[in-house]
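Annex B. Sample input.
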Amino acid sequence: MSVKYLKLWHTSSIVGLLGLIALIILWNGWLAPQQTSPKSLEIALFTAPLLFFVRGVLHGRYQTLVLVMFIALTYALLGTWYAFTPNEGLYGTLMIILSILLYTGAYCYTRTIMIRDKQAEAEKTKPHK
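Annex B, continued. Sample output.
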Protein backbone atom coordinates (compact mmCIF):
# COMPACT_ATOMS: atom_id res chain seq x y z
CA MET A 1 0.00 0.00 0.00
CA SER A 2 1.65 3.09 -1.25
CA VAL A 3 1.08 6.65 -0.17
CA LYS A 4 0.06 7.48 -3.75
CA TYR A 5 -3.16 5.49 -3.19
CA LEU A 6 -4.05 7.43 -0.04
CA LYS A 7 -6.61 9.60 -1.84
CA LEU A 8 -8.23 6.49 -3.38
CA TRP A 9 -8.62 4.80 0.02
CA HIS A 10 -10.02 7.95 1.56
CA THR A 11 -12.48 8.40 -1.31
CA SER A 12 -13.65 4.79 -1.10
CA SER A 13 -14.33 5.11 2.62
CA ILE A 14 -16.33 8.30 2.00
CA VAL A 15 -18.32 6.66 -0.81
CA GLY A 16 -19.00 3.63 1.39
CA LEU A 17 -20.20 5.71 4.34
CA LEU A 18 -22.35 8.16 2.39
CA GLY A 19 -23.61 5.33 0.20
CA LEU A 20 -24.77 3.39 3.26
CA ILE A 21 -26.58 6.44 4.61
CA ALA A 22 -28.24 7.12 1.25
CA LEU A 23 -29.19 3.46 0.79
CA ILE A 24 -30.82 3.25 4.21
CA ILE A 25 -32.79 6.46 3.69
CA LEU A 26 -33.89 5.56 0.15
CA TRP A 27 -34.79 1.96 0.86
CA ASN A 28 -36.63 2.53 4.12
CA GLY A 29 -38.20 5.79 2.98
CA TRP A 30 -39.47 4.88 -0.47
CA LEU A 31 -38.34 1.54 -1.88
CA ALA A 32 -39.17 -0.95 0.88
CA PRO A 33 -41.94 -3.34 -0.16
CA GLN A 34 -43.69 -3.45 3.20
CA GLN A 35 -42.69 -2.46 6.70
CA THR A 36 -44.14 -3.33 10.07
CA SER A 37 -42.33 -0.56 11.96
CA PRO A 38 -42.58 3.19 11.31
CA LYS A 39 -40.29 4.35 8.51
CA SER A 40 -38.90 7.27 10.49
CA LEU A 41 -37.92 5.03 13.41
CA GLU A 42 -36.12 2.56 11.17
CA ILE A 43 -34.28 5.32 9.30
CA ALA A 44 -33.23 6.97 12.57
CA LEU A 45 -32.02 3.72 14.14
CA PHE A 46 -29.98 2.64 11.13
CA THR A 47 -28.46 6.00 10.18
CA ALA A 48 -27.69 7.40 13.64
CA PRO A 49 -24.54 5.30 14.22
CA LEU A 50 -23.22 6.29 10.79
CA LEU A 51 -23.95 10.00 11.19
CA PHE A 52 -21.64 10.25 14.21
CA PHE A 53 -18.66 9.42 11.99
CA VAL A 54 -19.36 11.54 8.89
CA ARG A 55 -17.26 14.54 9.90
CA GLY A 56 -14.26 12.47 10.95
CA VAL A 57 -14.33 10.36 7.80
CA LEU A 58 -14.66 13.42 5.56
CA HIS A 59 -11.62 14.99 7.24
CA GLY A 60 -9.64 11.72 7.16
CA ARG A 61 -9.14 11.48 10.92
CA TYR A 62 -7.22 8.36 11.87
CA GLN A 63 -9.13 7.51 15.07
CA THR A 64 -12.51 7.94 13.40
CA LEU A 65 -11.56 5.66 10.53
CA VAL A 66 -10.38 2.99 12.96
CA LEU A 67 -13.72 3.14 14.79
CA VAL A 68 -15.78 3.17 11.60
CA MET A 69 -14.22 -0.16 10.61
CA PHE A 70 -16.08 -1.83 13.50
CA ILE A 71 -19.32 -0.15 12.48
CA ALA A 72 -18.81 -1.34 8.89
CA LEU A 73 -18.58 -4.93 10.08
CA THR A 74 -21.87 -4.52 11.93
CA TYR A 75 -23.56 -3.24 8.79
CA ALA A 76 -22.09 -6.13 6.77
CA LEU A 77 -23.68 -8.52 9.26
CA LEU A 78 -26.97 -6.63 9.03
CA GLY A 79 -26.74 -6.75 5.24
CA THR A 80 -26.24 -10.51 5.38
CA TRP A 81 -29.41 -10.81 7.43
CA TYR A 82 -31.35 -8.69 4.94
CA ALA A 83 -29.86 -10.54 1.95
CA PHE A 84 -31.63 -13.72 3.04
CA THR A 85 -34.91 -11.99 3.86
CA PRO A 86 -37.61 -12.34 1.19
CA ASN A 87 -38.21 -9.15 -0.85
CA GLU A 88 -35.15 -7.42 0.65
CA GLY A 89 -32.31 -9.34 -0.99
CA LEU A 90 -31.21 -6.39 -3.10
CA TYR A 91 -31.14 -4.12 -0.03
CA GLY A 92 -28.99 -6.61 1.85
CA THR A 93 -26.62 -7.15 -1.06
CA LEU A 94 -26.11 -3.41 -1.57
CA MET A 95 -25.57 -2.96 2.17
CA ILE A 96 -22.91 -5.68 2.15
CA ILE A 97 -21.13 -4.13 -0.84
CA LEU A 98 -21.13 -0.61 0.64
CA SER A 99 -20.02 -1.77 4.08
CA ILE A 100 -17.15 -3.77 2.55
CA LEU A 101 -16.18 -0.68 0.55
CA LEU A 102 -16.25 1.38 3.74
CA TYR A 103 -14.23 -1.19 5.68
CA THR A 104 -11.64 -1.69 2.94
CA GLY A 105 -11.19 2.03 2.36
CA ALA A 106 -10.85 2.79 6.07
CA TYR A 107 -8.47 -0.13 6.66
CA CYS A 108 -6.18 0.68 3.75
CA TYR A 109 -6.22 4.41 4.57
CA THR A 110 -5.25 3.89 8.22
CA ARG A 111 -2.65 1.29 7.29
CA THR A 112 -1.08 3.64 4.74
CA ILE A 113 -1.05 6.50 7.25
CA MET A 114 0.62 4.25 9.82
CA ILE A 115 3.31 3.16 7.34
CA ARG A 116 3.88 6.76 6.22
CA ASP A 117 4.28 7.95 9.81
CA LYS A 118 6.74 5.15 10.60
CA GLN A 119 8.81 6.04 7.55
CA ALA A 120 8.79 9.72 8.51
CA GLU A 121 9.87 8.85 12.05
CA ALA A 122 12.67 6.64 10.72
CA GLU A 123 13.87 9.46 8.47
CA LYS A 124 13.77 11.87 11.38
CA THR A 125 15.85 9.69 13.71
CA LYS A 126 18.28 8.62 10.98
CA PRO A 127 21.79 9.95 11.72
CA HIS A 128 23.09 12.49 9.21
CA LYS A 129 26.61 12.17 7.81
